[in-house]
């Protein structure tokens, strides 16, 4: 299976005024479950609907309404757990997390504090070819999302839309195993990739369907190793939690800022106080959410409206059987079966559709050459045109073009020309080559004739080339020019060498 | 465990229930009475006994992932003290 070996990346070190400092980071990723209906009601999860149109009375917390769990959301959480090689708890339970906010009509969020559905797992965070960190997952629990407050429509009022209220969320909690801002972003990237492969969350960060709370603390070099040995948090610094971030760039900037803020406090003789902070991208700083502090007394207790959630091992096994090939496995297979580099395999497996596109393009051809072609020619053009590769050129067309290159029918240079024409006309590649007369001239007779003419017309060049064999390239170029680039370069080289030496 | 007046005031605030200053001693006393009863329950030895969550053996009821509800903006907003343009309108809450 997975036989990739990797080195662990070095932790990020920030030089303070007095000492060097390292970062210790843990993430809570909130991933909205891909489902049709909400976690406990039959209202739609559709994004962008009219405000308050996707709301059942359960969601608006009308008295007497009772939650009924959506089994598909449970399956999605199990699927995610299996994808992160995690322990699935056959018995879990729901608790109420109590706080008041206008976009939470119940006055509590139904969550899973004491008995989450998924326990310990792991995720391999890629930091570049041959470098990766294995980050431990602590737990995944199911919970309700809150509604949305709009603050900029009126100077004195906030407007509340409950469409998102009650949509299922998975909170995926990591151990504090992440050691720098880049690693944190890479962790979210990898998590997003796995969730998208699994189809359990669409990963749309812009819509807030994937967002992260980041816990940051600082420690002196060597302290983290002591923590890892003992799992005793007293070796680490006090952490602050930066809430609700939905951009890779901001996650990195916020961690960087927060680490420097904590270093300045500690080196100045102060103490970091454990608190919730908010990142302000306009000012590039984090600031305390003091108003949240008191609300943090959540007074959790088991939700009396819901029996414990009991699932069967057989059901879990069935979900496991339906799991797709995941990024790490796919990447390893591409490297082994197609001989592509680790870097190219990473590019091609970033999204399932791209991996499928690549494999369809290989057809019966060469994997490595197809990888180069797809990455350099197709993806380059698709990015430029801001379109998906499959909308630009069908994988079968790639396979057809590359097959013609492999059989020496056309040169690589002509192949690019055929691609351009195909993108414009959508004509069959073989037909393009036929119609435009782009077939490579392998007929040595024709090449010889062209070469003879050039030699006859340039006696001075011939003399020079005989003295200095490096000048033979000029003749090759002239023949290519005379044949419109269609002459087989290998055949031309051979003939030029023969004639000039003969 | 004993609840003093300031704890009673804090619990009331967390629950967003207004309690007048002079009502706090009585409230604290009520809390203490409840907690006293729970302490009494604590004396029962429940070592190795699974917590009972229901008096009848029942499996958590499930629903299938189908949209069966919603599309009732007017009803959802009908009890709102203030609603504008399809939203609930509430006093400004911003960090």
Descriptive keywords:
heterodimer; A: 502 residues; alpha+beta; Arc Repressor Mutant, subunit A; 9-stranded mixed beta sheet; 3-stranded antiparallel beta sheet; 41% helix; elongated; B: 95 residues; two-stranded antiparallel ribbon; 3 strands; 9% strand
Characterise this structure.
The complex is a heterodimer of chains A (502) and B (95). Chain A is built from 18 helices and 17 strands. Chain A has 502 residues and is α+β, with helices and mostly antiparallel strands. Chain A folds into 3 domains: 18-317, no CATH class; 324-436, no CATH class; 444-501, Arc Repressor Mutant, subunit A (Orthogonal Bundle). In chain A, strands 1, 2, 7, 8, 11, 12, 13, 14 and 15 form a 9-stranded mixed beta sheet that branches. In chain A, α4 (248-267) links the parallel β13 (240-245) and β14 (276-280). In chain A, α7 (327-338) packs across α8, α9 packs parallel to α12 and α15 packs across α18. Chain B has 95 residues and is of the alpha+beta class. Chain B has a domain at 5-42. Helix content of chain B is 36%, strand content 9%. Chain B has 3 helices and 3 strands, in the order ααβαββ. Chain B has a two-stranded antiparallel sheet. In chain B, a hairpin with a 2-residue loop joins β2 (83-84) and β3. The interface between A and B is large, with 54 and 36 residues. β3 (69-70) of chain A pairs parallel with β1 of chain B, so a sheet runs across the interface.
């Amino acid at each position: 299976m997975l036989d990739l070996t990797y080195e662990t990346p070095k932790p990020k070190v920030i030089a303070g005024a007095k000492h060097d400092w390292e970062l210790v980071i843990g993430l809570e990723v909130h991933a909205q479950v891909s489902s049709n209906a909400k976690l406990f009601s039959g209202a739609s999860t559709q994004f962008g609907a009219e405000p308050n149109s996707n709301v059942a009375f359960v969601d608006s917390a009308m008295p007497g309404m009772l939650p009924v769990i959506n089994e598909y959301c449970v399956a999605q959480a199990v699927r995610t757990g299996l994808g992160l090689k995690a322990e699935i708890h056959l018995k879990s339970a729901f608790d109420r997390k109590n706080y008041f906010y206008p976009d939470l009509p119940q006055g509590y969020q139904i969550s899973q504090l004491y008995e989450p559905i998924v326990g310990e797992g792991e995720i391999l965070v890629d930091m570049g070819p041959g470098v990766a960190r294995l980050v431990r997952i602590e737990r995944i629990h199911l919970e309700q999302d809150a509604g949305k407050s709009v603050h900029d429509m009126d100077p004195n009022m906030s407007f509340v839309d409950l469409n998102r209220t009650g949509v299922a969320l998975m909170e995926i909690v990591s151990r504090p195993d992440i050691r720098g801002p880049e690693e944190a972003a890479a962790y979210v990237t990898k998590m997003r990739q796995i969730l998208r492969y699994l189809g359990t969350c669409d990963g749309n960060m812009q819509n807030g369907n994937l967002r992260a709370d980041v816990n940051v603390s600082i420690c002196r070099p060597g302290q983290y190793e002591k923590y890892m040995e003992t799992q005793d948090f007293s070796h680490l610094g006090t952490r602050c939690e930066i809430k609700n971030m939905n951009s890779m760039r901001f996650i990195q900037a916020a961690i960087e800022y927060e680490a420097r803020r904590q270093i300045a406090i500690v080196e100045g003789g102060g103490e970091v106080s454990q608190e919730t902070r908010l990142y302000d991208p306009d000012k590039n700083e984090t600031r305390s959410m003091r108003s949240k502090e008191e609300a943090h007394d959540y007074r959790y207790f088991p939700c009396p409206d819901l029996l414990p959630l009991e699932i069967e091992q057989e059901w879990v096994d069935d979900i496991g059987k339906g799991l797709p090939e995941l990024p790490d496995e796919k990447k390893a297979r591409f490297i082994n079966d197609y001989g592509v580099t680790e870097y190219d395999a990473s590019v091609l497996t970033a999204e399932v559709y791209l991996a499928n596109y690549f494999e369809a393009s290989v057809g019966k051809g060469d994997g490595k050459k197809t990888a180069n072609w797809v990455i350099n020619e197709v993806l380059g053009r698709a990015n430029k045109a801001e379109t998906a590769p499959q909308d630009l050129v069908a994988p079968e067309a790639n396979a057809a073009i590359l097959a013609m290159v492999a059989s020496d029918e056309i040169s690589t240079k002509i192949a690019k020309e055929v691609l351009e024409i195909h993108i414009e006309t959508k004509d069959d590649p073989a037909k393009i080559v036929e119609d435009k007369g782009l077939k490579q001239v392998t007929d040595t007779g024709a090449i010889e004739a062209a070469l003879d003419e050039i030699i006859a017309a340039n006696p001075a060049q011939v003399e020079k080339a005989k003295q200095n064999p490096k000048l033979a390239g000029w003749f090759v170029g002239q023949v290519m020019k005379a044949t419109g680039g269609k002459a087989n370069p290998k055949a031309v080289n051979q003939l030029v060498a023969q004639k000039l030496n003969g | 465990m004993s609840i003093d007046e300031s704890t009673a005031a804090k619990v009331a605030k967390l629950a967003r229930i207004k309690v007048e200053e002079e009502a706090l001693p009585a409230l604290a006393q009520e809390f203490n009475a409840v907690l006293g009863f729970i302490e009494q329950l604590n004396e029962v030895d429940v070592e190795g006994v699974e917590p009972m969550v229901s008096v009848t053996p029942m499996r958590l009821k499930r629903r299938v992932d189908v949209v069966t509800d919603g599309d009732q903006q007017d009803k959802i907003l009908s009890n709102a003290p203030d609603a504008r343009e399809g939203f609930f309108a509430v006093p400004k809450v911003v960090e």
